[in-house]
Amino acid sequence: MHAKIAYIILGALSALTSATPVDTVAPAEATGSVAPVPVGPTPDPVSNVTATEIGPNARAGPTVKVCTNAGFSGRCATFGSTNRICYILPSAYNDVVSAFGPSQGQTCTIYQDTNCKGNSRSGIRFPGISDLRAVDFNDRMTSYLCFN
Question: Residue 121 and residue 143: Cα distance in Å, rounded?
């Protein structure tokens, strides 16, 4: 009898472990701040999140600075830039950024579309690009991805 129960349990466990992985997991609707995150084996392990402005009392860590005017002027904000996370700018900064600067030790790519897709400018290092018109990307940025 015990052998039969063990056989049934092993069969059930085998079926569970051979199940096909889910492609994405949607976050809880209540948060509204995180885009779907890839789950399981993927060729490009980049996650997407909505960038959140970092206040003056935030912990030290990699950041990027964006400004609505060239020369790092106008309305500016500092956002986090965790390694290999695609950040989507909040609507207040979408398609209005004219200057972009990562912190030291990072290399970043800025993208025209959400989820780090579409036209891009790569290889941006500290101190950044003070006038995105110089690389034909003024008021076109929607998301960014940095490597530490």
Answer: 11
